[in-house]
Amino acid sequence: MNYSWGKKGGESLVGTLGIDGKHMDAIDGSQPYAELWMGTHQNGPSKNAETGKLLSDELSVEPSLHGAEETSELSYLFKVLSVAGPLSIQIHPTKEQAKILHSKDPKNYSDANHKPEIAIALTDFELLSGFRCHSEIAANLQGFPEILELFGNNEKAALSSLAESPSPSSLRVVFSKIWKTDSIEIGKIVERIYNRVKDDATDLHFIIARLAKLFPGDVGALAPIFLNYFKLKPGEATFLSPNMPHAYLFGDCVECMACSDNTIRAGLTPKFIDVESLVEMLNYSETLLPKYVPTILPNGSRLFTPPGVDEFWVQEVTLNVSEKFEFDYTDSSSILVVINGAASVSLGEKSLRLDKGQVVFVRPTSGSSERVYLENPSDAFLAYRAFTPMRKFLKLRDN
Question: Which residue numbers delimit the Phosphomannose isomerase type I catalytic domain (predicted)?
Answer without folding.
Answer: 2-133
